[in-house]
Design goal:
The complex is a heterodimer of chains A (366) and B (288). Chain A has three domains: 165 residues, Rossmann fold (3-Layer(aba) Sandwich); 67 residues, no CATH class; 117 residues, Nucleic acid-binding proteins (OB fold (Dihydrolipoamide Acetyltransferase, E2P)). Chain A is an alpha+beta fold and 366 residues long. Chain B is an all-alpha fold. A two-stranded antiparallel ribbon of chain B has the order 1-2. In chain B, helix 3 packs across helix 7 and helix 9 packs antiparallel against helix 12. Chain B is flat, with a radius of gyration of 24 Å. The chains are: A alpha+beta (366), B mainly alpha (288). At the A-B interface, helix 3 and helix 5 of A face helix 8 and helix 9 of B.
C-alpha cells in the first residue's frame, strides 16, 4: 500500500509537443492517499486512462514525477512498482485454468503454495467463480473472463495499489452493480488504495469515497460525490455530473448581480464583491435542475417562464421551461402537472446559484 | 414450393467430380495400377496382387533409407522449430529494422533447391569452399564427401539454413498478432520472461506452429534435390533418403511395379504422420 503523488505531471504522446493541444495530460498535481477508494471520472479521451497507465508504469510521463510514498518511481517498471491493474477488456491467459490464472501473479511473486491455494479460494468466493476454478479460462463467457481478470488484480496482498480501467465495460448491467458493491467490500475488507477509472458517474459514486473529475487533460475537481453535486468546481463538472446536468447560462454583469436577456439575477454580496474585482467577461451561472423551484403563483422573487416540454421518467419528471431566450431544465416530482406553453413561476434559491468565471467556480473566501 | 424430382440434377456434381478426379484420383490411380500389376508393355500386363508391396516392405535397402529418413526429419524438426521460434522472438517488433530483418531472413527461401545444393556443395568443400576450408583451418578434420557424420551434418546444416527462415517468418507473424494488452497484463502480474513465453507467446503461436511442423515434416520427408546435388546420397548410401531411393528404382532400374508400390507406401506414411501430428497437437490441451 502506498500514497501515490503526481507532481507537475504532464504527458504528450507526440515527441515534440508544440501547444497545449498536444498534451493528453496537462500539468497537474494530485495525491491519492493511502488506503482510499477513488474514482477517476471523465468523458472518453480526457486522459484518464493515460493517467492510470502513468501511475502503473506502462507509460513514462513526458514531464513531472510520480512518487510512491514520497519516492520517485518514474524509472521503475510496473513489476518494480508492485502495482495491480485491471484492464477495460478481459485479458486472460487462455491456456490456463481459472485457478492457474488467479494463482499466476502469486506464483510470480514466489508466494508459498499453501498460501496461494487459500488466497485463490478466497478471491474466487468473493467473485463467485469458485465452481469454475478448474475450467479452462478460454471457455468462459465474457463477464466470467473479466471476473478472472479482476481476480488477478485482487489476489495479491502486498500491492501498492490496484488500478481499474473501466473494468465493468463488458459486464451485464445487473452484474455490474453487484460487482461494484463487491469491489467496495473488498476495499473495506483489505484496505488497499484503489483507483477506479470510469465515465459513468453512478459507477464512480457507488465505488468511491472521493472522485477526481478529469476534463481535457486536467483534474478539474477532486471531492466527494456530494461536493461534486452541490458545488461543481468547473462548468464541466456541473454539466457532466447529474442527470440531466446543471443548467449553465451565459450572463453579463448587472447592478447587484448578473443578467441574461431581460432577466436579472441578484447575487450574494460576497459574489458581487468578487465579481467587481474580476476583469474577465466569461461569466456563467449554474444551477442544478433539482434546485430550481416552480410555483403556480407569482411573487417578488419569481420569474415567469413557459413550459416547453415535460418528460416523465417514472419516479420524477424533467420539465423544460423557457425563460426569455434561455431554456432551463427543472426536476419535479411525479405529482407535477402543467400543460405545454402554460406559464409557470420559477425561483432560484441563492445558495444554489453558482457563479463561474472563466469556467471555474467563484467561492466564498473564509 | 413443390419439389420436382429430376435426376438430371446429378450433372451439377460433375464440376466437383472432375476437379477431384484430375487433382487427385486419376494421377494416383496410375500408380495404383502399376503397383498391382507387372507391366511389360502395351497389352502385356499381369495382375500380381500384393506381391510388389510384400517385396518392397522386405527390401533392406528401402528399410534403411526409411530409417534414415525418419532420423533426418526428426532432427530437422528438433532443430528448426525451436530455432525458428528463437529467431522470431529476437527480431525487431516493427519499423525499418523489422522490415530489413524480414527481407534478410527470407532470402534463403527464394533460392531454388538445386542452387541451394550447389551453393553448399562448393561452400562446404575443404579446398575452395569458405565454410569447409574454415572448419579445416580450425584444426577439425572435416570432409563431407568422405565422412558419414560430416555428410549428415552438412545436409542438416543446409536444410536448417534453407528452411528455418520459414519457421521464423511464420512465428514472427504469430507473435505480431498477440495484442499488446497481454504483455501489459503480464508485466503487471510480474511474469518472468520465461513465463511470458510459456503462457502467452507459446499458446498463441500454436496454430502457426502446427502449420510450421506439418510443412517442415512433409518437406523434409520428401527431400530430394538438395542432398542429391550435395552428396549424391553418399558416402556409400549414408545420405540416401527415400525419394532418392525411389527415383533410382523407378528411373535408374525401371522397376515400375515396385516403385509404384513403394510410392503408395511413401504417400501413406506422409499422410499418416501428418495426421498424427495434427491430431496430437490439436487435442493436446482440450478440456478434459
Amino acid at each position: 500500500m502506498a500514497e501515490i503523488q503526481l507532481k507537475a505531471l504532464a504527458h504528450s504522446y507526440s515527441d515534440r509537443p508544440t501547444g497545449p493541444d498536444d498534451y493528453a495530460i496537462r500539468q497537474l498535481d494530485h495525491v491519492w492517499h493511502k488506503g482510499g477508494a477513488y474514482a477517476l471520472l471523465g468523458p472518453s479521451g480526457c486522459g484518464k486512462s493515460t493517467m492510470l497507465n502513468i501511475i502503473s508504469g506502462l507509460i513514462q510521463p513526458s514531464e513531472g514525477e510520480v512518487l510512491f510514498d514520497g519516492k520517485r518511481v518514474n524509472e521503475l517498471s510496473p513489476r518494480d512498482r508492485n502495482i495491480a491493474q485491471v484492464f477495460q477488456f478481459p485479458v486472460i491467459y487462455d491456456s490456463m485454468t481459472v485457478y492457474e490464472n488467479l494463482a499466476f501473479p502469486l506464483k510470480n511473486n514466489k508466494v508459498p503454495a499453501s498460501r496461494i491455494k487459500a488466497r485463490v479460494q478466497e478471491i474466487a468466493e468473493v467473485l463467485e467463480i469458485e465452481d469454475k476454478l478448474y475450467k479452462k479460462a478460454r471457455n468462459l463467457t465474457a463477464d466470467e473472463k473479466q471476473k478472472v481478470s479482476m481476480g488477478r488484480g485482487l489476489v495479491r496482498e502486498d500491492v501498492s495499489a490496484i488500478l481499474f480501467d473501466e473494468p465493468l465495460t463488458v459486464i451485464d448491467p445487473q452484474l455490474k452493480w453487484k460487482l461494484r458493491r463487491k469491489l467496495k467490500q473488498i476495499h473495506e475488507q483489505f484496505d488497499i488504495t484503489m483507483v477506479y477509472v470510469t465515465h459513468d458517474q453512478l459507477e464512480a459514486s457507488t465505488f468511491a469515497d472521493r472522485i477526481a473529475v478529469m476534463y481535457d487533460g486536467q483534474v478539474v475537481q477532486f471531492g466527494t460525490p456530494t461536493e461534486l453535486f452541490e458545488a461543481p468546481n468547473h462548468t464541466f463538472v456541473g454539466y457532466f455530473i447529474g442527470s440531466p446536468g446543471m443548467n449553465i447560462v451565459e450572463v453579463e454583469r448587472c447592478s447587484d448581480g448578473v443578467c441574461f436577456g431581460a432577466t436579472v439575477l441578484p447575487l450574494d454580496s460576497w459574489q458581487v464583491d468578487i465579481l467587481k474585482r474580476m476583469t474577465s467577461g466569461n461569466l456563467k451561472i449554474g444551477i442544478r435542475p433539482e434546485f430550481i423551484e416552480i410555483s403556480p403563483i407569482a411573487s417578488d422573487d419569481t420569474y415567469e417562464a413557459n413550459v416547453r416540454d415535460i418528460e416523465d421518467l417514472g419516479t420524477y419528471k424533467i420539465v423544460t421551461v423557457q425563460l426569455g431566450a434561455q431554456e432551463l431544465k427543472v426536476r419535479q416530482g411525479e405529482e407535477f402537472e402543467a400543460s405545454i406553453d402554460s406559464p409557470v413561476h420559477l425561483s432560484f434559491p441563492k445558495q444554489w446559484l453558482m457563479l463561474y468565471v472563466d469556467e471555474f467556480l467563484v467561492q466564498e473566501q473564509q | 414450393m413443390d419439389k420436382i424430382p429430376d435426376n438430371r440434377a446429378w450433372w451439377l456434381v460433375l464440376p466437383v467430380f472432375l476437379l477431384v478426379a484430375f487433382s487427385a484420383l486419376i494421377p494416383l490411380m496410375t500408380v495404383v495400377n502399376y503397383s498391382v500389376q507387372d507391366i511389360f508393355g502395351p497389352g502385356q500386363a499381369y495382375y500380381v496382387g500384393t506381391e510388389w508391396f510384400k517385396e518392397v516392405l522386405a527390401d533392406e535397402r528401402l528399410q534403411d533409407s526409411l530409417i534414415r529418413q525418419f532420423v533426418f526429419s526428426g532432427f530437422v524438426l528438433l532443430i528448426q522449430i525451436p530455432l525458428g521460434i528463437g529467431v522470431a522472438l529476437m527480431m525487431p517488433k516493427s519499423g525499418i529494422k523489422g522490415s530489413l530483418c524480414l527481407i534478410l531472413i527470407a532470402i534463403p527461401l527464394l533460392i531454388p533447391w538445386n542452387v541451394v545444393g550447389t551453393i553448399w556443395q562448393i561452400f562446404a568443400r575443404g579446398d575452395i569452399g569458405l565454410f569447409g576450408w574454415g572448419i579445416n583451418q580450425l584444426g577439425i578434420d572435416y570432409n563431407y564427401t568422405g565422412d558419414t557424420l560430416d555428410a549428415w551434418l552438412t545436409v542438416l546444416l543446409m536444410d536448417v539454413w534453407h528452411w528455418t527462415p520459414l519457421v521464423a517468418l511464420l512465428c514472427y507473424s504469430g507473435l505480431r498478432a498477440i495484442p499488446e494488452a497481454f504483455y501489459q497484463a503480464a508485466e503487471i502480474d510480474r511474469a518472468s520472461k520465461w513465463a511470458v513465453f510459456r503462457y502467452i507467446q507459446l499458446p498463441r503461436l500454436k496454430s502457426v506452429l502446427i502449420i510450421a511442423v506439418l510443412l517442415r515434416f512433409m518437406d523434409s520427408f520428401m527431400i530430394y534435390i538438395e542432398p542429391f546435388v550435395l552428396t549424391g546420397g553418399g558416402p556409400g548410401s549414408s545420405t540416401t533418403f527415400l525419394s532418392q531411393t525411389l527415383t533410382t528404382m523407378a528411373i535408374g532400374q525401371f522397376d515400375l511395379g515396385r516403385a509404384a508400390a513403394f510410392s503408395l507406401i511413401y504417400f501413406l506414411i506422409v499422410l499418416l504422420i501428418s495426421w498424427l501430428f495434427f491430431t496430437a497437437i490439436t487435442h493436446a490441451d482440450k478440456e478434459k
